[in-house]
Structures are given as structure tokens and as C-alpha cells.
Amino acid sequence: MATIYIDNVPYEVKPGKNLLEACLTLGINLPYFCWHPAMGSVGACRQCAVKVFKDEADTKGRLIMSCMEPVRDNIRLSVDEPEAKEFREHVIEWLMTNHPHDCAVCDEGGACHLQDMTVMSGHNYRRYEYKKRTYQNQYLGPFLNHEMNRCIQCYRCVRFYKDYAGGHDLDVFAAHNHVYFGRHENGVLENEFSGNLAEVCPTGVFTDKTLKQHYTRKWDLTMAPSVCQHCSLGCNISAGERYGSLRQITSRYNGEVNGYFICDRGRFGYEFVNSPARIRKALVRTHLPEAVTKEVALQEIWGELRQARLIGIGSPRASLESNFALKALVGENNFHLGVDENDQDLVDLSLKILRKGPARNFSLREVETADAVFILGEDLTNTAPMLALAVRQSVRQQPLAQVAQASIPFWQDAAARELVQDKKGPLFIASITATKLDEIATATAHASPDAIARLGFAVANLISENSPVVTHLSEAEETMAQQIADALKTAKKPLIISGCASGSEAVLKAAANIAGALCEQVKTAGIVLTVPECNSLGLAMLGGHRLESAFEAIQNGYADSVIILENNLYRCANKTAVDSFLGHAKEVLVLDHLHHATTEKARIVLPAGTFAEADGTLVNNEGRAQRFYQVYPTPEDLQESWRWLINIGTSLRHPVLSNWKNLDDINQALAEADNQFKGILAAAPPAEFRIAGQKIPRESHRFSGRTAMNAHHAVSEPKPPEDPDTPLTFTMEGYRGEPPSSIIPFFWSPGWNSIQSVNKYQEEIGGHLHHGDPGIRLIEPVQTNLTHYFSEVPEDFAPLQNHLFMVPLYHIFGSEEQSILAPGIAQRAPEPYVAICEADAHALQLKEGNNLDFSLEHQIIRLPVKINNDITKGTAGLPKGLPGVPYAELPAWAIILKQETTWKHQPQIIS
Amino acid sequence: MEQTTTQNEVQFSDAAMAEIRRYISHYPADRKKSAILPILHIAQAEFGGWVSPEVQDKVAEILDIQPIEVYEVATFYTMFNLKPVGKHVLEVCRTGPCMLRGADHLIEHLESRLGCHVGENSADGLFTLKTVECLAACGMGPMLQIREKYYENLDPQKMDQLLDDLSKE
């Protein structure tokens, strides 16, 4: 530790940081703009100036930029020195000369870093009375507004977009007093992380366009800590509500998971919650009218189910609590996982791999620090976007060694990037088709899943001979395998990334073998596996029977009724199978938030709360159990699935469920029932948790209109709604200090209204939150020196006459069930297609856009062709989950149907 | 916004292309972008003294980079004209020493004589009036530059004479 003197007070701080970070870590307010904890310093804005003194005798000192000056032992600086203060006041005044006086109508107002810094610097009166510079704004797509007049030229947007996130279509133009940040022309910002600009921009140049549709000031939002539901990474988010609709999602800092950012699917996919297709009332189809009260629905359920032989189908997108409640209700033998047969095998295998080790399952933060990465079978940008962002940071690790050697601190961003130029550390990608990360990869291979697995096995064998040998590799494959093996072996912290996206067990096994082989040599080797949904891993841990056996149970008369939990079966099983299953069941009860093909077939539909209207726990791909909290009170009929299941259990006099009252009861029971969930109780504080006898408020102390907003119902203030499940209140009353990290509804600190206030909640800047980051890891690999290797190396892929091997492709905007219902996401989703390579298209006499007819699992599918030469000959890419593309278990062989004759081929009649 | 495409394909002359290739050859094959500034100058000379978006796209194509990368450079430097210019571009120095010697009067005079403001073209399309920062001829101010040539110790009379001469060219 180093001792530094700030205004003559000694502090112990960590060396290696800069003075700005040191001051902020110590809780000292110091204004800044161009510095960002995730992006380092460039010393451009001059806002963080402080005085530094040579020694105690030095009274004059010199002004320096605190973000550019490393912490040195015994350094003496002053934040409050009059000249430093005056300097900062002038800087903000200059920055503000062109800034419009539009806070009142600006979306950023009330959560604006520029406002905060202006007040903090003491620039209270504007003296500049001339014309302000103005710009034309651009259309940037469905996610972001553009208002360049507000720009203060901190350059953070392009530094995030280009340098950090790898975007290509946002740049800075012109110079001097007319610098412009934008695209080269109007158009959609293409990068998948563009939404972070709304948080990275210190003022209102880039703001959330979806928020603008139903604008609310930050202080008027009712907010709760939540976890993103749109992929398996479990990024932490804060969700905000007003007037009963979800208004905004912002990133919620978690030092181990998503850090400061989230992807655009996570940020803008929330609008399905406000969809008109929501199920808001219990429906009993045989009733007139269909919509019934909770009591009538439960009465009906009691009548039908008390005698029924019941099975339950769980869901990988429902909370652990809801799934466990259903399992408890129907009994262990009658609980089926509502997942695709292949996915179930893959997730089970992933779980097994993570458990048995010896490679450690890395968190996203650890991924950033890996110095050699090999990705097998995943298009990360589209399956687990934030993991792709983390990999983008990891390729900087090896070149940064050079920076350290030159004695440049890593946070000296401009200098570090200048020295590194475009050198990248080793990153290898073997994927089904080209991915966005290819541009930063050392080498890539686009191949069929089996070929990817073979390459992986070959790499494993080169690292350790204990892993099986792969024969008949092509020369190119052998060279690449050698190159990858060499890079991984020499790395200090190598990482293998794979997952369920390729649909191949062999790929997962190959990945496990490589990680295992590395662990024989490098103890710090890591593995990350993605799984299909936000709680896929949790559901797999909970365990249950296959979906197919549920179908059989009904067909064979073993059971007659089914409860389906938050699941559209048509997305995880063949249409004819589901039709027949739902047709044969005497009673079909579905709990879900939105109408879909399965709810259409149900006789009883119960309105389940989405993540915004429910509490629950999800287990992400790392095995981290994280709690999400209900954001706002809902009408009584709309409630958590687990609460419905408790209601049903109580009405059926179920011996276990009748005793459950709230979330903690379920978690307690889960922790007792299953040893692997023992840790879950530590994931978040229980409902009776209090600080100074008080709960934690979901609303800010500035929340307005609490009586007025209900005045059309009653003019007297209603009793505040209660929350029996959590230590949070739905009102503004409660403990105003800092709560434990897992129950922070929003970040705020006096003088810090923007999201930058997270500084005040961290142990050190960019580090962990106070008392540890939210969530608890339920999976730790066994510490062993013995690696068990998978031995089944697949044969290489061989094309088949008149067939195409259908492999899954993914789209960040489109493949996920719920986010696609948000209008902005839908706008970004592609049209349905099937991707084949030029050679296959030629052989089939097809051009881009022509229809290809094929038969897949007894369904006849017609889709327009997209030519993609990265797709292996003999295989075809089918976008998974995209609306308009029917479900099929992938990968699978499709039979090509003969082309219809078109007018061109019709015989000509010669008269 | 609708994007308009030009009917006329932007085409460099053989001589210009040879010059461009020579500049590109100065840099490693994967660092072609390094030649961007001289090539923009060639492009500006080649296509009537300014670089249109189409010309910039062509430069991007030659250098194997995205158009946006050319735009950010071309918009940064004031020596690249982004709007059509007259036959003669008058670049009047407006830095301190020239100002002390009457550059402001000279600019006013030019504005009234040409009937346009700084940054605009004269009505006859012959002249473009620009102001620039110091051209390192402080001893001879006020002064202006037309292409590579300096005209020094100017006053309104000398200016009129110069414009008349240029008009006749």
C-alpha cells in the first residue's frame, strides 16, 4: 500500500491506480468526464485537475490532471486548493458554453453526469451570452436518440463504441468547435452494445429511445434489482416502472458478471412486459366470459385437478422457485423439464463438465483477464452477447504485457493503445458460420459441428496425450490444431469457451477435453459454457424427466392432466407431438405471461408475473444463483407462478405446498431438499432482513405524485402495497443508506444522480461492490489432478445426396422468445431464411431469395435462401427461434424436396 | 434519409492512380490507410478542388477501408473542401499579425467585392473565400494563399488588381 496525502490527510491506497481513482475510492468527490472506470484515462477534458506539491514546504504546487497521474508513495495533493477549484470551475464553464439550457426537456435530466459535475464544480451562473453552436441530429435506429447540441466532446462514446465494443459505424468528424459524433449517414447503429452509449455519454446526446415512448424521470421510477432474462449470462439490471408499465432497463453493476455494461437485447428487450398480448386475468375457456377471478379459477382447478393424475412441465426461463414449486406439487416422478430433448442432453452434459472440473468455470470478469481463448461452436455475439464483449477485452491481455514492460499503467488508455497498435492476443474461433468476433481472431475455422469437435479433440490430444487421438485430419486442420495448442499451452490463463449452441455433444466434450488437458499443465485454465436460457442450468440442477416422457405419460394413460409452467411447448418439441399431447390431455393448465400457441390449447390459463412482476432466483451459465425482484405491485390476479402453484397446492391440500407462504419458504425447502442448492439462501437476504429496523425503498426520496397518480381512483392516499417476500418496499419510505449489494434497487449518492454514482458502492473503483458482488456460485469444480477424458471422437461430416444437414444459427435480435416481442428488437430481427453455400445453391439451381423446400422431422418447410459461403457444403443454417422458422430439433438431416417448375422451365409451345 | 447514388462513376486519371500507388507503396500492405492524407490531396486536385462524398468513398475503396474512416479524416482537416469550390480558392490569413496589419478590412473588402461571406463561393463561381490560420508569412501580412502561391502585403487596391487578373485567366 502507498500513503498519499490529500489536503494534508494521509490515506492508505493501492499503488498502480491513478489519483482520480484513488480519490473516488476514498469517497472524495472529484469531477470528471473523459475518464471512465472501464475505459481508463485519456486526460482530455481537464475536469479532474488537482494540485500536487513537491513536499510539505511547497505551497505553490502545480496543477495536474488526477486521472493521468499514478499513485506514488508520499505524494501530496490537494483537491480543495483554491487554484485547483477555480481551474475546474473554468473548465466546466468552457464545456458548458455550447451546452443548451434544455435540462427541463432533456431525457438525461435528473440522471445526468454533466448536471452533477456542474453543480459539484460550482459553476452556477452562465456568463456566456452568445449564440450556441448547433448541429443536425441523426436517426440512429430504434434504440437511441441523438441530440448532438448537448455534446461536451468528452469522446467517451467513440472510445466505448470503437475501442471497447469493436463497433465500426460511430465516429468523430470535423475538429475545433464543431466536432461531431455520429454515423457517416442516418441509419441504425449496428453494434450490439450501442445502448450503453446512453450510460457512457455523460449528458443527453445518446438517450434511450424506448424510454422516450413512455418517459419518466429517474427519480420517479419505482426500481428493483433484477437479472436479465434474455440469455444464460445473467447480467444484472435495474428495472424501472411507473403507472404500471415497465419504463426502462439500465445496467446494474456486478463486478463479477456484467461490470458496467449490458447488451442491447438485455436493455431494450423488456417491452414484452407491456405487450397488449399479456395475460392479465385468469382464463377458463369453458366459462362465459372466459376471464374469471382468482377465486373462480382456483375453484375450477380444485374441481378438475383434485382427482387428476397430474404431471408438470417446467421451464428454463422460469425461476428456480417456480420450477421447484411445480416439482413439489406434482411430485418428483411427474416433473418434466420443458426443454428440447437435445438441449436437455447438452445442458446435462455442460453441468457434468462444470462440476467435475478440473477447469474452473470462469465468471465474465475472469474471461476479460484470460490471455488465450479458444471458442468452439459458438457465435457468442448472438448467443451470449456480453461474453463476446468480455472476449474482446481478453485479446488485449497479451499485448498489455508490452505496456507493462514500458512502465505504462494500463489505465493510460491512449498510451497503451498507441503502443499496442492493433496487436491482439491469441483468440481462435471454430464456428458453424462467420461470427463478429472473427475480425479480432488469430485464426478461424468455419465447419460443421462434427468437424469443430474433431479440431477440438485434436487440440486436446496435442496438449495431453491422455486425450484421444484424432485420425484423418486434413493438413490445414492439423496446422491449426497445432497453432491453437501452442498458444493455449504457453498462456498463463487460457480459456475454453463452448456451449449448447451448436447442438453437438461432441463439441462440448472436445471443449472439456481441452480444458482438462490444459489443467494438467496450467492450473489456472478456465472454461465457460453457454446454455440456451436464463435458467437452463438451474433447471438442469433441479432435474426432472424428459419432455418426451411427459408426452408418453399422457398418451399411455399414466397421467391425464398437465400443468405447463411458463413454456410454449411449440418452441421445444415437434408440432405434431405437441398437438397430440395437448389434444390427449384431459386438462391443460398453463401459467404464463403472454399468449402463444400453447396457451391457445389450454383450458385454464393463469396470468404469471414476468421478471418485473415476480421475485425469484436464476442460475446463470457460470452456476451463479442470482435473485431478481418484483419491480412494482400488480393487480391481485397477476402473480408469480410459484404463488399460483402455492395457491393450487393449498386448495388441493398438498402436504408440502400448503405450508409455504412466501419466497423464503420455498427457498428454505429447496435448500433442505437438495444439497446442491444449499448455498441459495446466501444469494440474497431473507424477507425479514432490516437495516435499522427498516426495509429498503424501491423509490427515490424525490419520488413525486404518489397520491396524485391515483387520484382518478381515490383522492386519499391508499395504503402502501406490502411486499411479504423481500426486504424491499414499494414506496419511498425506508432505509436510505447503502443496502447489501444484491438488493440495491438503483445507484444514487448525494450529488451523484447519474449511474456514475456506482463509484460510491464499490470497494475500489471498477472492483467488487461493498461486501461482495451479488449472487452465489453453486458450482465449484472438484479440485483434482486427474482428468477424465471423453473418448468418443466423431467421424468427419460427409454430405448426403439430396439432403442438407440443418445446423442452428442465432440472432441476438430474433432468436430469443421474449425479447423479440419488443418492437425495437423485432425491427432489428432478420426475415426468416435458410442459409446455404454458393456451391449447394448452384447445384440446386437456387439464387439468393429463391425458396428452398425441405422436409425436416416430417414437416415441410419453405424458406427463402440466403447465400452464406461460410456454411460448410452439405449443411444449411436454420435460424433458431426466429418467428417464421418452425421448431425442429437441430442439428438434423433435412430432405430436399424437388423444386416446383417455374415459368422459365415450362416447355414452350411452338405453334 | 434517402441515399443518392451518382450516375458518374468516380474515376482517377492514370497519372493520379500511379501517384496514388506510389504513396501506398510507402507503407506495409496491411497499413494502406496510412496513405490517406496524400491521396485525399490528390483526389482534391483531381476533382475540382473539393472531395465529394462519392470521391471519399472511392478513396475508401482504394485504401480498403470503410468510408466512415475517410470521412473522419476529411472532415477534420480544414484544407479539404467538402463543398464545391470556385476556380480560385482565396485563403486569407486571419491570425494575429495579419489582423494587426488589416486582414479584417481585407476580408470585409473581399466579402463586398465578391458578394459572398467567408466560406462561400462568389456568385460567378470563380472564387471561394476562406480564412485560414497562420501561413508563416507574418512579416508580409496581410496575405493570402491561392493554391501554392502567396500574395503578400495586400491592401484593397492590390486585392482588386489581383482579382481582376485572376478573372481574366
TrEMBL record, chain A:
Organism: Adhaeribacter rhizoryzae
GO molecular function, one term: NADH dehydrogenase activity
GO cellular component: membrane
All residue ranges annotated as the 4Fe-4S Mo/W bis-MGD-type domain in the record: 221-277
4Fe-4S His(Cys)3-ligated-type domain span: 83-122
Known catalytic reactions: a quinone + NADH + 5 H(+)(in) = a quinol + NAD(+) + 4 H(+)(out)
Identification of the protein by name: NADH-quinone oxidoreductase subunit G
NCBIfam families, per the entry: NuoG
Sequence similarity: Belongs to the complex I 75 kDa subunit family.
Keyword annotations from UniProtKB, A to Z: 2Fe-2S, 4Fe-4S, Iron, Iron-sulfur, Metal-binding, NAD, Oxidoreductase, Quinone, Translocase, Ubiquinone
Gene3D superfamilies named in the record: 2.40.40.20, 3.10.20.740, 3.30.200.210, 3.40.50.740
Cofactor(s) listed: [4Fe-4S] cluster; [2Fe-2S] cluster
Gene Ontology BP, a term: ATP synthesis coupled electron transport
Residue ranges of every copy of the 2Fe-2S ferredoxin-type domain listed in the record: 1-83
NAD among keywords: yes
Domain of life: Bacteria
Keyword NAD among UniProt keywords: yes
InterPro entries: 2Fe-2S_ferredoxin-like_sf, 2Fe-2S_ferredoxin-type, Asp_de-COase-like_dom_sf, Mopterin_OxRdtase, Mopterin_OxRdtase_4Fe-4S_dom, NADH_UbQ_OxRdtase_75kDa_su_CS, NADH_UbQ_OxRdtase_ferredoxin, NADH_UbQ_OxRdtase_Gsu
Complexes and interactors: Composed of 13 different subunits. Subunits NuoCD, E, F, and G constitute the peripheral sector of the complex.
UniProt-listed CDD domains: fer2 (cd00207), MopB_CT_NDH-1_NuoG2-N7 (cd02788), MopB_NDH-1_NuoG2-N7 (cd02771)
UniProtKB/TrEMBL annotation, chain B:
UniProt similarity note: Belongs to the complex I 24 kDa subunit family.
Details of cofactor binding: Binds 1 [2Fe-2S] cluster.
Pfam families, alphabetized: 2Fe-2S_thioredx
Keyword terms: 2Fe-2S, Iron, Iron-sulfur, Metal-binding
Residues that bind [2Fe-2S] cluster: C93, C98, C134, C138
Record's protein name: NAD(P)H-dependent oxidoreductase subunit E
Keyword presence, Ion transport: no
Transmembrane segments: none
A molecular-function term among this protein's GO annotations: 2 iron, 2 sulfur cluster binding
Cofactor: [2Fe-2S] cluster
Organism annotation: Adhaeribacter rhizoryzae
